[in-house]
């Protein structure tokens, strides 16, 4: 008997390019990442997007009658539209009919649906969105959280982010004893606003993590840190700036390497190197951010995600499921006594 593949519920109606790009990415993931996808949404629209030429079985379609539009107030829409595609997808996870959910839809609605249907993990006050960015050290990413779920934070929220981020970095990203930093304007413990100063102290006292101090903006992509915590306001700005820098670098590479015969020859010679560089700096390589702190695996993808990003988001969801992120947070996060996760691997 073979191993049962990880089941990923896909919000097929969420995103700027839904459902066509979402469906295509889901089918790619099913064929390449060894998962079973459940496409949630309007069956007629989904079927119209399927152009199946593989020997793999067709994805399962789970009907959903409603969609949460981008202009709607998230919580109100989630409560009013019980049959919205994101709600139906979350219900599949809640009822153990799926192992994870991926959505490129309204991020606020995705978070609201996750909180209402999956709930928070014990000891976690606020879930956080974690985003993986490349660093100057090859194959050494950095996890930033929160990047948008919580605009206003308390020190204990950042402490919880650090613990969850440590677990994710260690077990999913494969980092040994992840080094944690606090995003700040200076290295000294006294630098920054009240949140930064108080958070520095509480992080320093927590033996569940390997806190090595403040991380300035120039340190984020240096490879010196494995996990960097911050409030969602600063984190979201940081994430979008990093994505813009990556896009700008790729665009400049295209412009500088293509003109004339010499450019074409150079491009041909450097193609393998350029491909590896693109994979390192292109944000679609991870496909989205994991919502850490809720009772299920949930990946929030960019609204502008196309097929490759959705496929990669599904791969990230699979990795989180197979590495038992939820179970590890539940078993390792003990805020009362700050039990060390490093000594209990």
Give a quick precis of the structure.
By secondary structure, this protein is of the alpha/beta class.
Please render the helix and strand layout as text.
Layout: E1 7-11, H1 20-32, E2 36-41, H2 43-49, E3 60-63, H3 74-80, H4 85-94, E4 100-103, H5 107-118, E5 128-133, E6 142-145, H6 155-171, E7 179-183, H7 194-204, E8 210-215, E9 227-229, H8 232-257, H9 260-281, E10 289-292, E11 297-300, H10 307-322, H11 325-332
Parallel strand pairs: 1-2, 1-4, 2-3, 4-11, 6-9, 7-8, 7-9
Antiparallel strand pairs: 5-6, 5-10, 10-11
Radius of gyration: 20 Å
DSSP, total strands = 11
Strand order in the sheet with the most strands = 3-2-1-4-11-10-5-6-9-7-8
Question: Distance between the terminal alpha carbons, to the nearest Å?
Answer: 30 Å
Largest beta sheet, briefly?
11 strands, mixed
Oligomerization status of the protein chains: single chain
Beta-strand portion reads 5-15%
Mean pLDDT: 87
Shape: globular
Total count of helical runs of at least 4 residues:
11
Question: Your description of this structure?
Answer:
This protein has 345 residues and is an alpha/beta fold. Helices cover 43% and strands 15% of the residues. It has helices at residues 20-32, 43-49, 74-80, 85-94, 107-118, 155-171, 194-204, 232-257, 260-281, 307-322, 325-332; strands spanning 7-11, 36-41, 60-63, 100-103, 128-133, 142-145, 179-183, 210-215, 227-229, 289-292, 297-300. It has an eleven-stranded mixed sheet with strand order 3-2-1-4-11-10-5-6-9-7-8, with helices on both faces. β2, α2 and β3 form a beta-alpha-beta unit. The two termini are 30 Å apart. The relative contact order is 0.17. Mean pLDDT is 87; it is low at 336-345.
